[in-house]
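Fold this complex.
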Amino acid sequence: MTTPDTKAGTTKVDPKLLEILVCPVTKGPLDYDAAAQELISKQAGLAYPIRNGIPIMLADEARALDADGK
Amino acid sequence: MTGPVDIFDRNLLRQRRSRVAPDFAAHDFLFREIAERLAERTADVRRDFDTALDWGGRTGLYADAAQRLAPGKIGRLVHSEISFDLARDGRQAHGNPTIVADEEALPFAEHSFDLVVSAGTLHAVNDVPGALAQIQRALKPNGLFLGALLGGETLHELRTAWLAAEAEIEGGASPRVAPFAELADAAALLQRAGFALPVADLDPICVTYEHPLKLMHDLRGMGETNIRRDRRRTPTRRDTLFRTAEIYTERFAGPDNRIPATFEIFFLTGWAPDASQPKPLRPGSADSRLADALETFEQATGDAANPHPSKDQG
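Structure:
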């Protein structure tokens, strides 16, 4: 409650949030792709989208990674 | 509460919550009340919480309640909700870090939080023991879980009226109201999930309505209509609906003609284990005799109790 986002920052994901997020399927680490606004779980082969600065940590909504892990 | 269950359709829950998002504030009284009671309980705890999670918190009503009723207790509050629409509306209101996640698959590293709050959402989770175990692991040692769960006799009036109306008009009943946990189950579940010092207590909320259809309208508006997988898939017949309302009024209306709706809220409290917490000693580890403390005679196990002890035994 002490760190409300500024109006301009409402579409950015909170960096401290990224430190504690893990993949909901494997509980493994996530890589943040800032350009694509995705959180990548290599172990699960899934990319979780970030919309309006809100990570969507649902396997149903995630993009399946291709063979190259992209 | 034994074995794996899959009675609730979580995707349907997500759809329901997103659908009600635009008008949710008009129907959020029950969850606002639950959030306030949880915030009062937070204020009663004699410690502060640097990091906290509102787990499954709809529009994040707990953030608002905690700011008013437990000011300064929480440093950083993360809001999680299964519906993007409710999560987004919450973030706009409170500005806290927000994610979309399912209470059945927690996406936080171990030991991330000092406090996890669950305000009226675990009643729609299939695997409650699993969900609680995940919360326990996300807590730091000596971290606190504060939960509120709809249970017991919640909506018993509506359940009774539906059963009677369906039996009368359609000659059979379909599952309408979710099965709820009992209070003893709730405490046992906390213990099973590895929480120390588990406590479960009951705090009912009784609401009255002018008419049963207004109650049903509110339940729809809060996104709490039937998500059972075994629910009937055909639309409810109008005559059954109106007969339900009639029976509800006949059986339950008070002298002022208003109808009551019972919500039984189980409040759950548990701590992530920590060496600093009080623990029972190992059996047989006592270094003084209970009999001495009580100034009485100790009877060996297996001996028949002597109903007439002589004076010299004292």
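The mean pLDDT of chain B is 90.
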